[in-house]
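Database export, one record per block. Field names are fixed; values are copied verbatim from the stored entry.
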Amino acid sequence: MPRPIDQRERKALLMATQTSVILKTGAIIAAATVLAAGAILTLRYGGQANSLALVTQLLLLAAAASFGGVLLRLELRMQSQRPNLPIAGFFPAVFLAFLLGLAALYPSAPSYLEASALAEVSPLMPLTVLIVLTAAYGWAYRAVFFALLVNLSAVDWVKEIAGPEFSDQIHIYWDGAVRYGDPVALIMIRAFPESKAGSTDLDSIAEALQRAIDPYLRRSDRCGRYARDTVWVLLARTNVALAEVPVQRLIERLRHDRELQHCLDRCNAELRCGVAAYERRMQSPQDLANAALAAVEEAARKGRELQFRR
């Protein structure tokens, strides 16, 4: 089972995903919300409920669930502009305002909270229960929303996060190559699942792969995540010819790393490695990355473990 994505990954996924996919995800949750709420209200109140109030409540619940993803994106944008804003507070606050407005417009609407009975305990009890349940709904909505969005969106949130880090790490070596002709080689190592079932847990492979590589790097070399399924390794002052020996040694060590091999076996995946070196015709670090990625794809296409881009 894939691990749940953390807050940074959620933000990258939500901000990079197309609005149409976000609305589609919300629509799925809205449909489930209407079915569940309709069943609860029908079983609890039966023919006692005001039909207009019941339909209105269900439609407004569906609307709130449908546009929940848009609200979450707005919440993240507001939080990025105002870091002191509680990131978990905006969405429940909007939903709470919606419920209070519904109660004001349709006082005869069936209540999930049994407000009259709670008011007998304390006048503040209905509001307290409403706030707690709304916060719980906000937490549950986030969990379900992002679990669906991961599968519906084609966005690689790790790549969205790792892009700036990759640029920062490679910049000094790229500058040395452009100005002084210092050679630099880039290795891309990608996990290729043999079936779609294995593609759901690529993070564990990439994390294990990076842990396996780090101990064998020189001080001048660098390693990091490039995407969910890809790790990059930069070899300073190394051209393609000089890279062959260290790359072969690295692959040999990866073959004997038990944790990494366990992850590969569990995900039914294989590693493919591509190596490219800086060339004068390249205009940016991304050109070097693209050349290494092309070598990875060529290795996968030819069924090779390693491919040099010459």
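Remark 1: The mean pLDDT is 85.
Remark 2: The first strand starts at residue 184 and ends at 193.
End of record.
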